[in-house]
Design a protein that fits this description.
heterodimer; A: alpha+beta; Jelly Rolls; 4-stranded antiparallel β-sheet; 33% helix; B: alpha+beta; 4 helices
Chain lengths: 143, 161
Amino acid sequence: MFIQEVELFQGIPSHVINEISELVTQEIHPAGYVVFREGDVADFLYTLEEGEINLIIQAQKDFSFPVIKAGSVFGWSSLVEPNRYTATAECVKESKVLKIDAERLMRVFQRHPAESLIIMKRLAGVIATRLQKSYKEFAASRK
Amino acid sequence: MVSIDSLKQFDFFQGFSEEQIKKLADIAIEESYKAGFQLWKKGDPAKTLYLLEGGKVVLGMDTYMGTARPPMQVTVDIVTKGDAMGWSAVIEPYVYTLGARCIDDSKAIALDGAKLRELLNKDIKLGYAFLHATAKVIATRLTHTEIILIGERGLSVLSEY
């Protein structure tokens, strides 16, 4: 997968993408593998390349958010204080992920404020989407 | 326009420079509302972002239990002094995701969404800092909502015994 295909980085100019590319490692994990646990220090931002990840809240498998679309990001807590993961990420099937060093990514943001503004808007949108899903769950739980 | 000091008291602006806060203070106004006042409804265009200086505001939604019954208002979160609310004013599609109603007499600093978005697009460093702070607000709201949801599920499991 190209970095430009990651939902946060679409349309970002190549000189910034090149810097981000240097922070990325690719990992392949089997089904059942836990990428990170809720409450862990959040050091890395992840993108799904292939497979499926489940984001599980407070160890309750019936309260989870699937990540199935290639290019979707998870582990956004690495970019937002207090930098602790808010869910446990578990591979539903064998999955290929891109792992991005968050601290160094924040340094790239400081060097390129215009692009960083676009990325931060999108990141806030990603969190807002999960919040909206929680509200839907909330409404459903009241019916 | 409000004073720089009145904005500095909010954690939201932690790490912002004096100059950045000044630009925001220039477009901010102070408002007071009586208990019971509806600031906005779910689905309204998000025209304002607020920083609560005093009082209490509930964020909630209407749930429908069938056509024959009136909708039930359910509280999702409570906003108190020092909190920011109305983040939808800076995040597309700029539509409020919950309703907001004062349950005490309340005082807030209001930032007009259109002016704010214009300022954040013009001053990109300020824009980045503001969006970063907004992401934190959304993440906090998410954590609160999930705690309530999990708590309720826990209670419903317990009540089955």
